[in-house]
């Protein structure tokens, strides 16, 4: 059986090919799945998708009509998939429940340190042999407060690094993580966490109840000199409200690896095109903002685990097995 994989990065392609070797053929495409590209999948029983693929009702209907029976998503998040429609169409959908939490946690810290110590600005200057220190002053994070929204595996990994920095830890989640409590974390309401934290980082899934978790009111609750980091999902932050606050000169730094309207932009080369997203265009002009292209997960360790789990999900499907990764179970063939 040939599996069609959408949204495959060049670094990812050899890893996918090696992982499926001896099991199934796989053809990796650099295009993302959407209404225009869905016809390519015709005749493929199993496809694999990335988080920026469109698996809404129209696309899923097209896939089902073309003979697709299984979607193997190469990510933990699945907010891009209409699961109710997939179930109605009889499609099996599986995801990667977990992978290296260190990849995302370490990258979130990379963003935090980069905006705090003005690394991008300093690097740009020194390329022009400008070695002034004006505008490059940062702050010690030792002794300051880290507020972690979401204390699962990634949030815990971030907390361990923060503990190593000697920071006070505040947490917010639906359930307390015993490992974080052992680090000295205090769980508090979201409003208190935002008001007291020098560094706020987001590590929660994007769900209807977490959409714009950081909205205009939340942003106004934060300290004027706080650092905000989002390496989870773009929809957690109301970007328009964030731009409004940045215009007021607030925040020491903002590091975003995700953006709520990133589909159709991230993972693509738009350097020769006019980008009509005014919010993003304004966001990247602020000197205290660093935007990266959803790369926090992108380590050889994490990607290898993601692909390995994707292979297992496909093998489970062909064998009629079900694992914790299945979001919509297999339905009998008519």
TrEMBL record:
<comment type="similarity">
    <text>Belongs to the D-isomer specific 2-hydroxyacid dehydrogenase family.</text>
</comment>
<dbReference type="InterPro" id="IPR006140">
    <property type="entry name" value="D-isomer_DH_NAD-bd"/>
</dbReference>
<keyword id="KW-0560">Oxidoreductase</keyword>
<dbReference type="InterPro" id="IPR036291">
    <property type="entry name" value="NAD(P)-bd_dom_sf"/>
</dbReference>
<dbReference type="InterPro" id="IPR029752">
    <property type="entry name" value="D-isomer_DH_CS1"/>
</dbReference>
<keyword id="KW-0520">NAD</keyword>
<feature type="domain" description="D-isomer specific 2-hydroxyacid dehydrogenase NAD-binding">
    <location>
        <begin position="110"/>
        <end position="296"/>
    </location>
</feature>
<protein>
    <submittedName>
        <fullName>D-lactate dehydrogenase</fullName>
        <ecNumber>1.1.1.28</ecNumber>
    </submittedName>
</protein>
<dbReference type="GO" id="GO:0008720">
    <property type="term" value="F:D-lactate dehydrogenase (NAD+) activity"/>
</dbReference>
<dbReference type="Pfam" id="PF02826">
    <property type="entry name" value="2-Hacid_dh_C"/>
</dbReference>
<dbReference type="InterPro" id="IPR006139">
    <property type="entry name" value="D-isomer_2_OHA_DH_cat_dom"/>
</dbReference>
<feature type="domain" description="D-isomer specific 2-hydroxyacid dehydrogenase catalytic">
    <location>
        <begin position="8"/>
        <end position="327"/>
    </location>
</feature>
<dbReference type="GO" id="GO:0051287">
    <property type="term" value="F:NAD binding"/>
</dbReference>
<dbReference type="Pfam" id="PF00389">
    <property type="entry name" value="2-Hacid_dh"/>
</dbReference>
<dbReference type="InterPro" id="IPR029753">
    <property type="entry name" value="D-isomer_DH_CS"/>
</dbReference>
<dbReference type="InterPro" id="IPR058205">
    <property type="entry name" value="D-LDH-like"/>
</dbReference>
